[in-house]
Design a protein that fits this description.
By secondary structure, this protein is mostly helical. It has 20 helices and 2 strands. A two-stranded antiparallel ribbon has the order 1-2. α4 crosses α11 and α6 crosses α17.
């Protein structure tokens, strides 16, 4: 792979109208703006990140998380572009890497259903363990794998490029480079690892991804021809996400008093050398507000991680371009960073992600999603029934519920449900189960 081909302003769905513009805003900045002003992006404000929404203490939702990831991603991209230029790399649009990465970061969570990862699990298990299992014989093995391992990453790609009914060709019509930069797992579901079950595009979008890969010169993996190598900028999007969710979850847990102030400080300071700790402790003495102290440590730490990940990317640039780099940037940082990051991860898993507050919203979300699937899948597969017709009126026309294939109808339902906010999903659940009846 090479930077000249990897950085392209060609737009998906508008290839025949490809042209160079003369205004000051670059094509990649246009991608960012299109995403910011889109309805799916706005809906992220009411999708759970980790902690229940809303609460008496404001914590992160998918929207604020995505904005912060985009901010960190932009800094990573700008850093890397400068370092590559100093290294002697010369290619068109190299100085736009920060804009590409920040746009991709904005889009990376667009495909996540309501209630976080619990929503993904509910969708997958409805088909692998629930009543949806009856549909297996009506699908190909590739289609069946898509829905029994439903993945927010793949769903984001579908949302960005799919031509929904009444909408224009190409979906969001983003640049090829921005689209490729969000595909963390560039392969179809049938090539996913058995344990992780992660993949980057559904069977319905495999031809589209192949088109993007061909245009950008993204090669297939030498050790697994079923998979593509990652676009290099995926590593920066991944690093920005890793930095933000790990560090911000720690800060949110402190605000919610799940973690004590001392434990939070210890975790954040563990990334720094002894000399750096001394300097930061001196700064902390100037601030008496505890939340401000934690915010200072968090911002200082994020800055250090941005620089460390930028250095790691440039050091491994050739492996990344060759498609032989098989790690995340976080895992190749200096030992002190890696050990401290693991300590944060272990603490988050033990005390945050398994906390009663988080588990309660996951359990409720699981039940809500399963119930919606039960009713809506039945409706699209048996549209002649009176109750089905009533339900189908609730689904916007853009979703192809009358697709000629079972897979197409199921995907229409998944498009509808995954686009819901937490509150909308809860409201629809209450209405179709009769818990809430509109006043007459």
């Amino acid at each position: 792979m090479n930077w000249t081909q990897l950085l392209s302003t060609k737009r998906f769905g508008m290839e025949d109208y490809h042209e160079n513009r003369d205004d000051e805003r670059s094509e990649f900045q246009r991608d960012y703006d299109r995403l910011i002003f889109s309805a799916p992006f706005r809906r992220l404000q009411n999708k759970t990140q980790v902690f229940p929404l809303p609460g008496s203490v404001f914590v992160h939702n998918r929207l604020t998380h995505s904005l912060e990831v985009a901010c960190v991603g932009r800094s990573l991209g700008v850093n890397v572009a400068h370092k590559l230029q100093k290294k002697g790399v010369n290619a068109p649009f190299l100085d736009e890497i920060g804009a590409v990465v920040s746009a991709a970061c904005l889009a990376h969570d667009l495909g996540n259903p309501p209630f976080g990862h619990s929503g993904e699990k509910a969708i997958a298990t409805y088909f692998s363990e629930g009543h949806g299992k009856e549909l297996e014989q009506a699908m190909t093995k590739e289609e069946w794998k898509d829905i029994t391992c439903f993945e927010g990453n793949a769903n984001a790609f579908r949302l960005l490029i799919h031509q929904f009914k009444g909408r224009r060709k190409g979906g969001f019509v983003l640049t090829y480079s921005t689209l490729a930069s969000i595909i963390k797992y560039p392969y179809a579901s049938i090539y996913a690892d058995a344990g992780k079950q992660k993949f980057g595009f559904f069977d319905s979008e495999k031809v589209s991804y192949q088109k993007i890969a061909d245009e950008l010169g993204i090669q297939r993996c030498a050790d697994n021809p079923g998979r593509f190598c990652r676009h290099p900028l995926v590593y920066l999007v991944e690093a920005a996400d890793d930095i933000c969710y790990q560090i911000m979850d720690i800060e949110d847990a402190h605000k919610l008093k799940i973690l004590s102030t001392e434990e939070t400080k210890r975790l954040l300071l563990s990334f720094f050398s002894e000399a750096q700790k001394v300097r930061r402790m001196e700064t902390l003495q100037m601030v008496t507000d505890v939340n401000e102290q934690i915010a200072y440590l968090r911002s200082s730490l994020i800055g250090s991680l941005i620089e460390a990940c930028s250095v790691a990317f440039v050091e491994h640039e050739q492996e990344i371009l060759d498609g032989t780099f098989k790690s995340s940037l976080i895992k190749v940082l200096p030992e002190q960073f890696r050990l401290a990051y693991k300590q944060c991860s272990d603490t988050a898993y033990a005390k945050i992600y398994r906390s009663p507050e988080v588990l309660d919203v996951e359990l409720a979300g699981y039940k809500i999603i399963l119930t919606l699937l039960e009713h809506l899948i039945s409706a699209v597969l048996q549209p002649e029934k009176a109750y089905s017709q009533q339900l189908l009126y609730r689904i916007p026309e853009q979703y192809e519920t009358n697709s000629p294939t079972t897979y197409g109808r199921v995907m229409a339902v998944l498009d509808y449900i995954s686009g819901m906010t937490d509150i909308y999903a809860l409201d629809l659940y209450r209405k179709i189960t009769g818990i809430n009846i509109p006043q007459l």
